[in-house]
Write a structure and sequence with these properties.
It is built from five helices and no strands. By secondary structure, it is mostly helical. Helix 2 runs antiparallel to helix 3 and helix 3 (65-75) runs antiparallel to helix 5. The mean pLDDT is 81.
Length: 117
């Protein structure tokens, strides 16, 4: 653990915390009656799996960490369009999510190249 770079520890911890938050959301959105739609529970389960997988791949410094980050950030675009329906808020949120995802993917690829040399 001490030989990990601080950025790797920080990213993996953030992704793990986000994955656990999605697990809690999954438990809260789980359908309890037959009239409840399971769509939010399914979406929360997919997001939880994506973020936990991204945390594990980042911790292991896998070459698949950057694409997993792109998938995890891309999943946030679905609820972002419902923040302000028909307004400019969803476009701003989409731009922010895309910029953060691309920057994080670039960092993970660069980190992977530095550690393999």
């Amino acid at each position: 653990m001490l030989n990990q770079q601080f950025g790797t520890l920080l990213l993996a911890g953030a992704f793990l915390a986000a994955g656990l938050a999605w697990v809690i959301t999954l438990l809260g959105a789980w359908p309890r009656t037959s009239n409840t739609s399971p769509l939010m529970a399914l979406f929360a389960g997919v997001c939880a799996c994506a973020y936990v997988a991204t945390a594990i791949l980042t911790w292991r410094r896998s070459r698949l960490a950057a694409p997993a980050l792109m998938v995890a950030m891309g999943l946030l675009l679905f609820p972002a369009r419902y923040l302000v329906p028909g307004g400019q808020g969803s476009q701003v949120a989409s731009v922010i999510i895309i910029v953060v995802g691309l920057t994080g993917g670039w960092y993970l690829r660069r980190m992977r190249k530095v550690t393999t040399q």
